[in-house]
Amino acid sequence: MAGVSTTTASSVLNGHGAKLRISQKTRDRVVETATNLGYQANPFACRLRSKKSHSIGLLWSFSGPHASNQLVRYFSGQAMRSGYSTLIYDSLSDLPLMIAQLRELAKNRVDGLIIACKGESAAGPLFPLLRKLPNVLVVTQEPHDLPFLQIAHSMRGAMKEAVSHLLAGGRKRFAFVGNLECNAPKIKNIRESLAAAGVKRPLALLDFPDPLSLSPEDWKRFVLEHREVRSADAILAATDEVAAAVISVLLQAGARVPEDVAVIGFNNNPIAALFNPPIASIKRYDRPIAARAIERIITAIEGTETPSPLAEIVEMTFVWRESAGCPRPS
Q1: Which of 17, 110, 135, 281 could be disulfide-bonded to 265 (CB atoms 3.0-4.6 Å)?
Q2: CATH number 3.20.20.80 given to 53-155+286-316
């Protein structure tokens, strides 16, 4: 209807008219005709023709204490600005669910996948499905031998610094408080840091449920019934929320924080700095990792990055606040 070839119409509607030196008059005529027709591109037809879906799958656990809504928005925004839509699934860190979600993503023929998992042992059962996808980037907690693009969000250095700070303050009786099953990597890093410092006293463990599911009375009873917490002079908590719950109970019981017990949380939630005393924490870098993951998966899809199994490492950091005791590290 515009009196041009299919190729010319396609080039103009895809924004390549100027680059291909199609005259402004012709471009205006094509756009005007499309507008009058109420024309909209059929994405399914485009996918069949180009053999690309222009979509990226995201398999992530959004049930954690991080700012999940902001992370979803950031992933989607970054991808959209690069011309890709996102299919986002909350994995809940549940293996059967992740397998079902990967099969669904494969059916949708996504051009690439960003998947967060705890490491090689977690990703292993997913390998057969991951290998069927054209481009895969795995976000792990530590570098692993994986045959995919990889970003490791490492807590090792930050945890070592936190433990060293507590030891420098004369702390000798360490305890970890949190869900033990979900926090095995944190416990492993704490134990390794203590061992490297020559500490032989075992790390006390308290399997603590979600603090938001307990009343203040339940918190107090649960914490004070466990000798590991009452006798510890250094507590590392699974999250800042758990740290806040523990500090609240200790203060009610007459203990002084940090004079009697130093407490360090995890995730550096904004509430940590507002608590009394302000809660020291391990800072994550989810937003920079989201940006880097989207950047790398798109360059892989478009063939501008050579796939490499070598991990790109992003280190978490220890954020000192008054709950950790001792002067601020220099």
Answers
A1: 281
A2: no
